[in-house]
Amino acid sequence: MSGPLDRLSPVVRVAPAKLNLTLAVIGHRADGFHDLHSVFVPLALADRLSLAPSATGRDSLHVAGSAVSSGTDNLVLRAIAATRRAVGGGWSGGPGPAPPIAARLDKRIPVAAGLGGGSSDAAAAMDAAIEAWAAELDDAARLSVAAGLGSDVPFFGAGGPALVEGRGERVTPLHGLRGAPGILLVTAPVAVSTPEVFAAFAAIRGTGDPATRLSSAHLASELGSGLSAADLVARAGVMAAANDLLAAVAVVMPELVPFRRALTRLLRRPIGLSGSGPTLWAVYPSHAAATLAAATVTGAVADGSLVVPGHGAPFVAATIIAPTLIAIDTTPARRTQP
Ligand code: C5P
Protein backbone atom coordinates (compact mmCIF):
# COMPACT_ATOMS: atom_id res chain seq x y z
CA MET A 1 0.00 0.00 0.00
CA SER A 2 1.30 3.44 -0.73
CA GLY A 3 0.05 6.68 0.76
CA PRO A 4 1.03 10.32 1.06
CA LEU A 5 3.83 9.43 3.50
CA ASP A 6 5.72 7.62 0.75
CA ARG A 7 6.05 10.87 -1.11
CA LEU A 8 7.96 12.51 1.74
CA SER A 9 11.70 12.70 1.38
CA PRO A 10 13.83 12.82 4.55
CA VAL A 11 15.55 16.18 4.86
CA VAL A 12 18.51 17.27 6.99
CA ARG A 13 19.37 20.86 7.90
CA VAL A 14 22.06 22.59 9.93
CA ALA A 15 20.64 25.23 12.25
CA PRO A 16 23.42 27.74 13.06
CA ALA A 17 23.76 29.82 16.19
CA LYS A 18 23.71 33.61 15.85
CA LEU A 19 25.67 36.37 17.46
CA ASN A 20 24.62 40.00 17.79
CA LEU A 21 27.68 42.10 16.92
CA THR A 22 25.62 45.20 17.77
CA LEU A 23 22.21 45.60 19.38
CA ALA A 24 20.63 49.04 19.49
CA VAL A 25 17.19 49.35 21.06
CA ILE A 26 15.36 52.09 19.20
CA GLY A 27 12.24 52.24 21.33
CA HIS A 28 9.28 50.54 22.94
CA ARG A 29 6.39 49.59 20.66
CA ALA A 30 2.67 49.61 21.26
CA ASP A 31 2.61 45.78 20.97
CA GLY A 32 4.99 45.43 23.93
CA PHE A 33 8.04 44.55 21.82
CA HIS A 34 10.99 46.82 21.08
CA ASP A 35 12.21 48.15 17.75
CA LEU A 36 15.80 47.08 17.23
CA HIS A 37 18.74 47.87 14.97
CA SER A 38 21.10 44.92 15.22
CA VAL A 39 23.84 43.30 13.16
CA PHE A 40 23.34 39.54 13.33
CA VAL A 41 25.91 37.01 12.11
CA PRO A 42 25.49 33.22 11.83
CA LEU A 43 28.12 30.97 13.41
CA ALA A 44 29.54 27.61 12.38
CA LEU A 45 28.36 26.28 15.76
CA ALA A 46 25.06 24.64 14.81
CA ASP A 47 22.34 22.20 15.77
CA ARG A 48 21.39 19.42 13.34
CA LEU A 49 17.77 18.77 12.42
CA SER A 50 16.41 15.90 10.39
CA LEU A 51 12.81 15.37 9.32
CA ALA A 52 11.36 12.07 8.12
CA PRO A 53 7.87 10.67 7.63
CA SER A 54 6.14 9.89 10.92
CA ALA A 55 4.73 6.41 11.27
CA THR A 56 2.67 7.34 14.33
CA GLY A 57 0.12 9.56 12.62
CA ARG A 58 1.27 12.71 14.40
CA ASP A 59 4.27 14.99 14.51
CA SER A 60 6.98 13.89 16.92
CA LEU A 61 10.34 15.18 18.10
CA HIS A 62 13.34 13.42 19.57
CA VAL A 63 16.00 15.68 21.09
CA ALA A 64 19.59 14.50 21.66
CA GLY A 65 22.46 16.38 23.28
CA SER A 66 20.53 18.57 25.69
CA ALA A 67 17.69 18.49 28.17
CA VAL A 68 15.38 20.50 25.90
CA SER A 69 11.66 19.76 26.00
CA SER A 70 10.46 17.62 23.10
CA GLY A 71 6.83 18.52 23.84
CA THR A 72 4.51 20.70 21.78
CA ASP A 73 6.10 23.80 23.33
CA ASN A 74 9.32 23.04 21.43
CA LEU A 75 9.77 25.52 18.61
CA VAL A 76 10.50 22.72 16.12
CA LEU A 77 7.03 21.21 16.58
CA ARG A 78 5.43 24.65 16.64
CA ALA A 79 7.25 25.52 13.41
CA ILE A 80 6.10 22.33 11.67
CA ALA A 81 2.48 22.91 12.76
CA ALA A 82 2.52 26.59 11.73
CA THR A 83 4.08 25.72 8.37
CA ARG A 84 1.46 23.01 7.74
CA ARG A 85 -1.32 25.55 8.44
CA ALA A 86 0.28 28.08 6.07
CA VAL A 87 0.80 25.49 3.31
CA GLY A 88 -2.77 24.19 3.52
CA GLY A 89 -3.37 21.93 0.52
CA GLY A 90 -0.41 23.39 -1.41
CA TRP A 91 1.93 20.42 -1.19
CA SER A 92 2.76 17.52 -3.51
CA GLY A 93 0.07 15.23 -2.11
CA GLY A 94 -2.58 17.93 -1.55
CA PRO A 95 -5.35 19.06 -1.30
CA GLY A 96 -5.47 17.50 2.21
CA PRO A 97 -3.19 18.73 5.00
CA ALA A 98 0.52 17.88 4.75
CA PRO A 99 1.33 14.60 6.55
CA PRO A 100 2.93 14.17 9.97
CA ILE A 101 6.66 14.42 10.48
CA ALA A 102 9.12 12.73 12.83
CA ALA A 103 11.84 15.25 13.70
CA ARG A 104 15.18 14.58 15.31
CA LEU A 105 17.19 17.43 16.78
CA ASP A 106 20.85 17.18 17.82
CA LYS A 107 21.47 20.14 20.13
CA ARG A 108 24.94 21.64 20.17
CA ILE A 109 24.02 25.28 20.76
CA PRO A 110 23.55 26.10 24.45
CA VAL A 111 19.90 26.68 25.29
CA ALA A 112 18.54 30.10 26.36
CA ALA A 113 22.01 31.57 25.91
CA GLY A 114 21.39 34.56 23.60
CA LEU A 115 22.65 32.48 20.67
CA GLY A 116 19.29 32.00 18.95
CA GLY A 117 19.39 28.20 19.03
CA GLY A 118 15.64 27.63 19.40
CA SER A 119 14.85 30.26 16.76
CA SER A 120 17.34 28.70 14.35
CA ASP A 121 15.85 25.25 14.93
CA ALA A 122 12.41 26.71 14.13
CA ALA A 123 13.64 28.33 10.90
CA ALA A 124 15.36 25.09 9.87
CA ALA A 125 12.19 23.09 10.65
CA MET A 126 10.07 25.41 8.48
CA ASP A 127 12.46 25.16 5.56
CA ALA A 128 12.93 21.40 5.90
CA ALA A 129 9.18 20.73 6.19
CA ILE A 130 8.49 22.77 3.05
CA GLU A 131 11.07 20.69 1.20
CA ALA A 132 9.93 17.36 2.66
CA TRP A 133 6.36 18.06 1.58
CA ALA A 134 7.47 19.52 -1.77
CA ALA A 135 5.22 22.41 -0.78
CA GLU A 136 4.82 25.93 -2.12
CA LEU A 137 5.14 28.88 0.25
CA ASP A 138 6.07 32.32 -1.05
CA ASP A 139 8.54 34.62 0.72
CA ALA A 140 5.84 36.79 2.32
CA ALA A 141 4.08 33.75 3.79
CA ARG A 142 7.40 32.31 5.03
CA LEU A 143 8.25 35.60 6.71
CA SER A 144 4.84 35.76 8.36
CA VAL A 145 5.18 32.21 9.75
CA ALA A 146 8.76 32.91 10.90
CA ALA A 147 7.89 36.19 12.65
CA GLY A 148 4.94 34.48 14.35
CA LEU A 149 7.29 31.91 15.87
CA GLY A 150 9.69 34.44 17.42
CA SER A 151 11.49 37.73 16.85
CA ASP A 152 14.83 36.10 15.93
CA VAL A 153 13.41 33.50 13.51
CA PRO A 154 13.24 35.66 10.32
CA PHE A 155 17.01 36.34 10.49
CA PHE A 156 17.76 32.66 9.90
CA GLY A 157 16.08 32.86 6.50
CA ALA A 158 18.69 35.40 5.35
CA GLY A 159 21.44 32.82 4.77
CA GLY A 160 24.26 34.97 6.18
CA PRO A 161 25.09 38.16 8.11
CA ALA A 162 22.22 40.64 8.14
CA LEU A 163 20.94 43.89 9.55
CA VAL A 164 17.85 43.10 11.63
CA GLU A 165 15.32 45.87 12.30
CA GLY A 166 11.80 46.35 13.59
CA ARG A 167 10.87 43.64 16.06
CA GLY A 168 13.11 41.30 14.05
CA GLU A 169 11.04 40.95 10.89
CA ARG A 170 12.99 43.42 8.73
CA VAL A 171 16.08 41.54 7.57
CA THR A 172 18.59 43.03 5.13
CA PRO A 173 21.40 40.66 4.08
CA LEU A 174 24.94 42.07 4.39
CA HIS A 175 27.26 40.50 1.85
CA GLY A 176 30.58 42.21 2.63
CA LEU A 177 32.26 39.84 5.09
CA ARG A 178 35.56 38.47 3.74
CA GLY A 179 37.16 35.48 5.44
CA ALA A 180 35.96 33.70 8.54
CA PRO A 181 36.68 35.59 11.80
CA GLY A 182 37.19 33.40 14.85
CA ILE A 183 34.74 33.75 17.71
CA LEU A 184 35.18 32.67 21.31
CA LEU A 185 31.94 31.96 23.16
CA VAL A 186 31.70 31.75 26.93
CA THR A 187 28.31 30.97 28.43
CA ALA A 188 28.09 30.96 32.21
CA PRO A 189 25.56 28.44 33.59
CA VAL A 190 23.04 31.08 34.65
CA ALA A 191 19.49 31.66 33.41
CA VAL A 192 18.80 35.11 32.00
CA SER A 193 15.19 35.69 30.92
CA THR A 194 14.86 37.83 27.77
CA PRO A 195 11.50 39.37 28.79
CA GLU A 196 13.02 40.26 32.19
CA VAL A 197 15.98 41.94 30.51
CA PHE A 198 13.70 44.00 28.24
CA ALA A 199 11.54 44.91 31.25
CA ALA A 200 14.66 46.05 33.15
CA PHE A 201 15.74 48.04 30.07
CA ALA A 202 12.35 49.79 30.00
CA ALA A 203 12.62 50.54 33.74
CA ILE A 204 16.13 52.02 33.66
CA ARG A 205 16.24 53.94 30.44
CA GLY A 206 13.40 53.06 28.06
CA THR A 207 15.33 54.17 25.05
CA GLY A 208 18.69 53.20 23.62
CA ASP A 209 21.94 55.15 23.55
CA PRO A 210 22.30 57.17 20.31
CA ALA A 211 25.99 56.10 20.23
CA THR A 212 24.95 52.42 20.05
CA ARG A 213 22.62 53.18 17.17
CA LEU A 214 25.42 55.02 15.39
CA SER A 215 27.90 52.16 15.89
CA SER A 216 25.30 49.68 14.67
CA ALA A 217 24.50 51.72 11.55
CA HIS A 218 28.19 52.17 10.83
CA LEU A 219 28.98 48.46 11.17
CA ALA A 220 25.96 47.51 9.02
CA SER A 221 27.15 49.81 6.28
CA GLU A 222 30.70 48.46 6.47
CA LEU A 223 29.56 44.83 6.53
CA GLY A 224 27.41 45.61 3.52
CA SER A 225 30.37 46.74 1.44
CA GLY A 226 33.52 44.93 2.58
CA LEU A 227 35.13 43.94 5.86
CA SER A 228 37.90 41.39 6.54
CA ALA A 229 38.44 39.35 9.71
CA ALA A 230 41.24 41.79 10.69
CA ASP A 231 38.89 44.76 10.14
CA LEU A 232 36.32 43.12 12.41
CA VAL A 233 38.94 42.50 15.12
CA ALA A 234 39.93 46.18 14.89
CA ARG A 235 36.29 47.12 15.56
CA ALA A 236 35.86 44.71 18.49
CA GLY A 237 35.96 47.48 21.12
CA VAL A 238 33.17 49.42 19.42
CA MET A 239 31.06 46.30 18.87
CA ALA A 240 31.51 45.02 22.43
CA ALA A 241 30.19 48.34 23.77
CA ALA A 242 27.34 48.55 21.25
CA ASN A 243 24.68 46.55 23.08
CA ASP A 244 21.94 48.61 24.72
CA LEU A 245 20.92 45.63 26.85
CA LEU A 246 24.23 45.53 28.78
CA ALA A 247 22.97 47.75 31.61
CA ALA A 248 19.69 45.84 31.87
CA VAL A 249 21.48 42.48 31.98
CA ALA A 250 23.66 43.90 34.78
CA VAL A 251 20.45 44.52 36.77
CA VAL A 252 18.93 41.09 36.07
CA MET A 253 22.18 39.11 36.52
CA PRO A 254 24.74 41.33 38.35
CA GLU A 255 27.25 38.45 38.56
CA LEU A 256 27.86 38.78 34.82
CA VAL A 257 29.49 42.22 35.29
CA PRO A 258 32.60 41.03 37.22
CA PHE A 259 32.72 37.91 35.04
CA ARG A 260 32.87 40.02 31.87
CA ARG A 261 35.54 42.22 33.47
CA ALA A 262 37.59 39.17 34.49
CA LEU A 263 37.39 37.76 30.95
CA THR A 264 38.52 41.12 29.54
CA ARG A 265 41.55 41.05 31.85
CA LEU A 266 42.33 37.39 31.15
CA LEU A 267 42.14 37.65 27.35
CA ARG A 268 43.09 41.33 26.96
CA ARG A 269 40.28 41.66 24.43
CA PRO A 270 37.00 43.52 24.33
CA ILE A 271 34.23 41.17 25.50
CA GLY A 272 30.73 41.53 24.04
CA LEU A 273 27.33 40.24 25.10
CA SER A 274 25.16 38.39 22.58
CA GLY A 275 21.53 39.53 22.61
CA SER A 276 20.22 39.53 26.16
CA GLY A 277 22.94 37.09 27.24
CA PRO A 278 24.27 35.36 29.13
CA THR A 279 26.74 34.40 26.34
CA LEU A 280 29.86 36.58 26.18
CA TRP A 281 32.05 36.69 23.07
CA ALA A 282 35.39 37.86 21.76
CA VAL A 283 36.43 38.15 18.11
CA TYR A 284 39.73 36.81 16.71
CA PRO A 285 41.40 36.84 13.30
CA SER A 286 41.01 33.07 12.90
CA HIS A 287 39.49 29.91 14.32
CA ALA A 288 42.97 28.86 15.52
CA ALA A 289 43.37 32.06 17.58
CA ALA A 290 39.89 31.60 19.09
CA THR A 291 40.79 28.00 19.93
CA LEU A 292 43.86 29.17 21.88
CA ALA A 293 41.69 31.67 23.76
CA ALA A 294 39.18 28.90 24.59
CA ALA A 295 42.05 26.87 26.09
CA THR A 296 43.11 29.90 28.16
CA VAL A 297 39.57 30.27 29.54
CA THR A 298 39.18 26.55 30.25
CA GLY A 299 42.56 26.54 32.01
CA ALA A 300 41.67 29.56 34.15
CA VAL A 301 38.35 27.97 35.14
CA ALA A 302 40.15 24.72 36.03
CA ASP A 303 42.83 26.40 38.19
CA GLY A 304 40.26 28.61 39.91
CA SER A 305 41.67 31.93 38.68
CA LEU A 306 38.47 32.65 36.71
CA VAL A 307 35.38 32.49 38.89
CA VAL A 308 32.27 31.58 36.91
CA PRO A 309 28.80 32.67 38.06
CA GLY A 310 26.21 29.92 38.53
CA HIS A 311 26.66 26.27 39.31
CA GLY A 312 28.67 23.97 37.08
CA ALA A 313 31.00 24.41 34.16
CA PRO A 314 30.58 27.18 31.60
CA PHE A 315 30.13 26.44 27.89
CA VAL A 316 33.40 27.50 26.23
CA ALA A 317 33.77 27.11 22.46
CA ALA A 318 35.77 28.40 19.54
CA THR A 319 33.86 28.84 16.30
CA ILE A 320 33.81 31.12 13.25
CA ILE A 321 31.38 33.53 11.67
CA ALA A 322 29.92 31.64 8.71
CA PRO A 323 29.83 34.10 5.76
CA THR A 324 27.11 32.04 4.05
CA LEU A 325 25.05 29.20 5.33
CA ILE A 326 24.99 25.86 3.63
CA ALA A 327 21.79 23.89 3.88
CA ILE A 328 22.63 20.22 3.74
CA ASP A 329 20.19 17.81 2.18
CA THR A 330 21.89 14.45 2.53
CA THR A 331 19.13 12.55 0.80
CA PRO A 332 18.59 14.14 -2.58
CA ALA A 333 17.00 11.02 -4.02
CA ARG A 334 13.23 11.26 -3.64
CA ARG A 335 11.43 8.07 -2.73
CA THR A 336 9.55 6.74 -5.69
CA GLN A 337 6.25 4.96 -5.69
CA PRO A 338 6.41 1.28 -6.54
O1 C5P B 1 9.87 37.09 20.06
P1 C5P B 1 10.47 36.40 21.25
O2 C5P B 1 9.53 35.38 21.83
O3 C5P B 1 11.81 35.86 20.99
O4 C5P B 1 10.67 37.53 22.35
C1 C5P B 1 10.93 37.22 23.70
C2 C5P B 1 10.70 38.46 24.55
O5 C5P B 1 11.74 39.40 24.30
C3 C5P B 1 9.42 39.21 24.27
O6 C5P B 1 8.37 38.70 25.05
C4 C5P B 1 9.78 40.63 24.66
O7 C5P B 1 9.71 40.78 26.05
C5 C5P B 1 11.24 40.72 24.29
N1 C5P B 1 11.50 41.31 22.98
C6 C5P B 1 11.25 42.66 22.76
N2 C5P B 1 11.52 43.20 21.54
C7 C5P B 1 12.03 42.46 20.54
C8 C5P B 1 12.31 41.09 20.74
C9 C5P B 1 12.03 40.55 21.97
O8 C5P B 1 10.79 43.36 23.65
N3 C5P B 1 12.29 43.03 19.36
Describe this structure in words.
The protein has two domains: 4-173, Ribosomal Protein S5, domain 2 (2-Layer Sandwich); 177-335, 2-Layer Sandwich (Alpha-Beta Plaits), CATH 3.30.70. It is an alpha+beta fold. The strands form two sheets. Strands 1, 2, 3, 4, 5 and 6 form a six-stranded mixed beta sheet that branches. The longest helix is centred in the middle third of the chain and has 16 residues, at 117-132. It contains ten helices and ten strands. Bound molecules: cytidine-5'-monophosphate (C5P). Residues 33-34, 36, 150-152, 167-168, 194-195, 198 line the site of cytidine-5'-monophosphate (C5P).
Oligomer: single chain
CATH domain class name of the largest domain: Alpha Beta
Q: What overall geometry do the principal axes of the alpha carbons give? A: globular
Secondary-structure element string:
EEEHEHHEEEHHHHHHEEHE
> How many alpha or pi helices?
10
Distance between the termini: 9 Å
Q: Taking Cα atoms only, what radius of gyration do you get, to the nearest Å? A: 20 Å
Quickly count the domains: 2
Q: Ligands in the structure?
A: cytidine-5'-monophosphate
DSSP summary, beta strand count: 10
Provide the residue-averaged pLDDT: 92
